[in-house]
Amino acid sequence: MYPWVRELAVADSKCFLRLAFLAVYHRPMDSASPDLTAFILAGGKSTRMGADKAFVTLHGRTLLERALELARSVAADVRIVGDPAKFAAFAPVVEDVFPGCGPLGGIHAALRASRTELNLMLAVDVPFVSQALLQYLIGRAREVASATVTVARMSGWQPLCAVYRREFADAAEEALRAGRCKIDLLFAADSTLVIPEEELEAVGFSQKMFRNLNTREELETVRRDG
Asked: Are 142 and 119 in contact (CB under 8 A)?
């Protein structure tokens, strides 16, 4: 195959994926799904930020407010995983069953509390994620019923912006009881739907969407650059 023919085929493939995404996954803001629960993971210690990340402001709104608005655009039931004393005024709160075990502990607690098969996990410190990206991940999760996790792999694994089925809680609990807290080690090849970077780029998503804010310097840079 001539190089230009190969390049044209790739371009046509990307165009097809983009059009399919726009047709199937682009929905209005009030299209919250009743068969999905969204969880905002806000239980981190925020040590590097020097303040609770959930309550730092970006362009006039806290990261928690931004995350709640985004989650509510795709799910009818939105909850926060964290300390009820901090968050009960904003949404229903789920507490960790295994405290101090990081994000995997939060995912486990969320899935044990959920009544829906599909569950979106969204870290509070990823303010650049879009509604369209979440809809895409949710749509892909619905397509593959055998996938206990639907997760992007773009600049590495993105387990804190992913869709989990409730049964993932079993593997998470086994790992937590054994003192293992690394999430991606639980992504079994036969039950994980990996959304690769090439697919995400083909439908218009950038790795910048997964950028998180960990430090005061990162926050100030985003504020300055707009």
From this structure: no
Query: What is the domain range of residue 42?
Result: 3-225
Q: What residues have CB less than 8 Å from 111, skipping those under 6 apart? A: 119, 164, 166, 168, 169, 172
Question: What pTM value is reported for the model?
Answer: 0.84
State both tokens at 117. Answer: 């098969």
DSSP state of 192: E
Separation of alpha carbons 28 and 131, rounded Å: 10
Q: DSSP letter for 162, please.
A: E
- Tens of pLDDT along 131-177? 999 999 999 999 999 999 999 999 999 999 999 999 999 999 999 99
Q: How many domains does the chain have?
A: 1
CA nearest to 21, candidates 153, 120, 130, 170: 130
Pick from 122, 156, 157, 118: nearest CA to 140? 118
CATH of residue 186's domain is 3.90.550.10
Q: Which residue has the tokens 């068969």?
A: 35
